[in-house]
Design a protein that fits this description.
The chain has helices at residues 2-20, 22-26, 247-254, 275-284, 287-299, and strands at residues 36-37, 40-41, 60-63, 70-73, 79-84, 89-94, 97-101, 107-111, 113-115, 121-123, 128-133, 136-145, 148-157, 174-177, 183-191, 205-212, 232-238. By secondary structure, it is an alpha+beta fold. The strands form five sheets. A five-stranded antiparallel beta sheet has the order 8-7-16-11-14, with no helix packed on it. Strands 5-6-17-10 form a four-stranded antiparallel beta sheet, with no helix packed on it. Strand 3 (60-63) and strand 4 (70-73) form a beta hairpin.
Length: 301
């Protein structure tokens, strides 16, 4: 009896330890799975090898053709730079639309912007904005909210650098607009009114992109030509599933409750289970809980 009580006490301590370190456990890969792609930590439900990710949409393709290695979302060209389980977010390195002109107003080079997102990813409406940079520029952002097409735009006009609002994206040289919740599969198109003819000397190019707020710092230098590989951070939302219930209802049905370390937030994707489910699924797979379950079974307590 004393031995059994001691064993129970040890198991209780292990369970307490596992619940008080939920955040650390939630940032782990499954046992036996690689958890690093270069500087990026890959926690479950994401993974890089067969059997290490929850479903195909959580596959991270780690390319060793660069140093350090680069993490791509599935088979796409979307570069993943951070994964947050607690917030249900991915940070990505986002490309930029560009259109450059010569002194006669003719296009000399252009680069399109597009971001095609598979389920269950959408562009974060709380962390990003749509930006347009240039002094003879307007842009159109197109995307989808569910099955419905969404369009918005932004215009930026200035005749000289002296009227550009330094360090503020307020419309003279730079404009910004909000992004609706649940936006996906976006493209950005750039247009000009006068082909940059009157401003070509200081502003030969226009740019449009979605970027994380606080990560794009506008200045007068921003209207000059950028490096062709110019990229900026952006944030995607993700959810664990496609359930039609809310996160709170999903908790009741699945028989678990959110704690301070597995915060429940209704998913920003219509018909998805929120971030609480992410923490729950990771906790199920942690070695401590698996070990406790095995000991309990063998001891028949």
């Amino acid at each position: 009896m004393a031995l059994r009580l001691s064993l129970v006490a040890v198991l209780l301590l292990l369970l307490v330890a596992s619940t008080t370190t939920t955040t650390a456990a939630a940032a782990q890969a499954l046992p036996g799975c690689s958890d690093k792609c270069g500087n990026l930590t890959i926690p479950y439900p994401f993974g890089m090898e067969e059997g290490c990710y929850l479903r195909e949409e959580f596959f991270i393709n780690c390319s060793n053709t660069t140093q350090p290695p680069t993490a791509y979302l599935r088979a796409s060209n979307i570069i993943v730079t951070n994964i947050s389980l607690d917030e249900g977010e991915l940070q990505i390195s986002n490309n930029v639309a560009e259109a450059c002109y010569n002194e006669q107003g003719n296009v000399t080079s252009s680069k399109d912007y597009s971001l095609d997102l598979p389920f269950p990813y959408t562009i974060s409406d709380t962390k990003n904005k749509f930006y347009t940079v240039g002094c003879d520029t307007y842009s159109i952002l197109q995307g989808f909210l569910g099955e419905d097409e969404f369009d918005t735009g932004c215009i930026s006009i200035c005749n000289g650098l002296d009227i550009v609002d330094q360090y503020s994206c307020s419309g003279a040289g730079c404009c910004q607009t909000n992004i609706p919740r649940g936006l996906k599969n976006t493209t950005a198109s750039l247009y000009t009114i006068n082909g940059h003819e009157d401003i070509w000397e200081f502003n030969p190019c226009s740019y449009a992109f979605i970027a994380e707020q606080g990560q794009f710092n506008f200045s007068a230098a921003s209207v000059k030509k950028q490096d062709k590989n110019y990229r900026l951070p952006a944030v995607l939302n993700w959810a664990i599933g496609n359930d039609t219930d809310s996160c709170a209802e999903a908790q009741k049905r699945k028989g678990f409750a959110c704690t301070a370390n597995s915060r429940c937030a209704n998913a920003p994707i219509n018909g998805s289970v929120g971030t609480c489910a992410s923490a729950y699924l990771v906790m199920k797979e942690t070695p401590t809980i698996q070990m406790v379950a095995k000991i309990l079974m063998s001891a028949r307590l």
